[in-house]
Amino acid sequence: MSTPPTADNILQSPILIMAKRAALMRAQGRDVIDLTLGEPDFNAPPHVLEAAHAALSGRLTYSPSNGIEPLRHAIRMRMKDIRNLDYADGQVTVGCGAKQIIYNAFQATLKSGDEVIVPAPYWASYPAMIKMCGARPLIVSTTREEGFRLTAEHLEAALRLAKSPKWVVLNAPGNPSGSLYSRKQLLAIAEVLRRYPGVMVLSDDIYSEIRYTNDPYQTLAAVAPDLRDRILIVDGVSKVYAMTGWRVGWGCGPTPLITAISSVQSQNCTQTSTLSQLAAVAALNGSQALVKERNAIYRQRRDSALSVLGACEAIDVACPEGAFYLLPRIRTIKDDQAFALILLEAGVATVPGSAFGIPGHLRLSFATDESILIAGCERLVQKIKASV
Ligand SMILES: Cc1ncc(COP(=O)(O)O)c(C=O)c1O
User: Fold this and answer.
1) Most buried of the four, 31, 163, 197, 384, by CB within 10 Å?
2) Aminotransferase class I/classII large domain: which residues (predicted)?
3) Mean pLDDT value across residues 102-119
4) How far apart are the C-alpha atoms of 66 and 280, rounded to whole Å?
């Protein structure tokens, strides 16, 4: 049984720890290339900034804890347009980023002893949030050969072992893998889930609009409509519109769960900023041209970085289908955390794979200028060569 968390046993995000160290070294005048943060180096689209300026002349009052109506409406229209999923107004709620929606959902549904199935590599915050709610993450490792995707077989095995499984986490494109699921893979997962009717699915689709394939995006709720009452889709403006600091994310799912998430929100921070919500309406309703343009830039950066890393024999790296991370395995290292520190001293900040449940790897964000990214990858390769 898990012990309820205290301030002492809540781990700080390892991503933020590495980013802070890099920032400190830079403040001391050291030349450090920072490839740690999953934060676009672009600004919010100009029409979003204009809408926010205009909104400042009005009164920015409290909003409903599930978000302002025009934003909920824009989210529903977006889900219909791009996923062909209909959500009623009561099935959508807005929070301070996708992160808070996920936390509120866990807070509303998990109790001590419950389990959440989390495929590794995972976004480091899932296990931390699950533990903060007194529950237990059940980590299911995936391999490079499986494309770092949860297979139906491994899901079934984990569910069979679990004593009190409450949620399964699916995140595609994955952070840090960049992997997507095909319709066939999701259908196989759905088949397993039908045998476990009490288990809900967190479908974290935050990177869904940052993809480098032409295939349509596949999300479980669209692939298996009969499971929709058990699926929470989470998304937001942070990544796709480069609006990380605005803190707007949302959840779409069954009415009782959405109501519960909004109730938690109403008690812990009332709502996310009304100004940010108005900006998010502009992001969703305005031109989407910039999203395409930026994806082309990310893709170019990904390919350039891969050509540097791919030329090094000690590195094994997959080509991500989406998001903006590379996850190289360094064949010659024993301890990724120690190596990340050595690399930091050599002037490149990365996040050790252990933070994502995948030791032996490093995560590099390519949401940064191409020449800086390439210089960072070159430093990495040089250090690997010097270490063997
Ligand atoms: C997989 C994943 N989910 C959710 C989030 C949270 O995003 P937000 O800024 O909307 O809270 C992140 C941010 O890094 C992420 O990588």
Assistant:
1) 384
2) 31-374
3) 98
4) 14
CA of 259 relative to ligand 1 center, distance in Å: 22
Domain range holding 29?
7-43+289-387
- Kindly report, residue by residue over 63-101, the tens digit of the pLDDT: 999 999 999 999 999 999 999 999 999 999 999 999 999
pLDDT of residue 14: 77
- CATH number for the domain harbouring residue 305: 3.90.1150.10
Sequence-distant (6+) residues with CB within 8 A of 234 are: 98, 101, 102, 105, 202, 203, 204, 205, 206, 249, 250, 251
Based on the domain organization, do 247 and 342 belong to the same domain? no
Residue 191, pLDDT above cutoff 60? yes
State the Cα–Cα distance between residues 151 and 228, nearest whole angstrom: 20
Atom of ligand 1 nearest to the CA of 323: 16
Ligand 1 centroid–CA 235 distance in Å is 8
Sign of the torsion angle spanned by Cα atoms 359, 143, 295, 220: negative
Q: Which of 285, 309, 335 is the last residue in one of the domains?
A: 285
What does the pLDDT read at residue 249? 98
Q: Is 99 in the pocket of ligand 1 (CB under 6 A)?
A: yes
> pLDDT band at residue 16, thresholds of 50, 70 and 90?
confident
The CATH number that applies at residue 267 is 3.40.640.10
> Does the beta carbon of 280 sit less than 6 angstroms from any atom of ligand 1?
no
Residues 135, 106 contacting (CB under 8 angstroms): yes
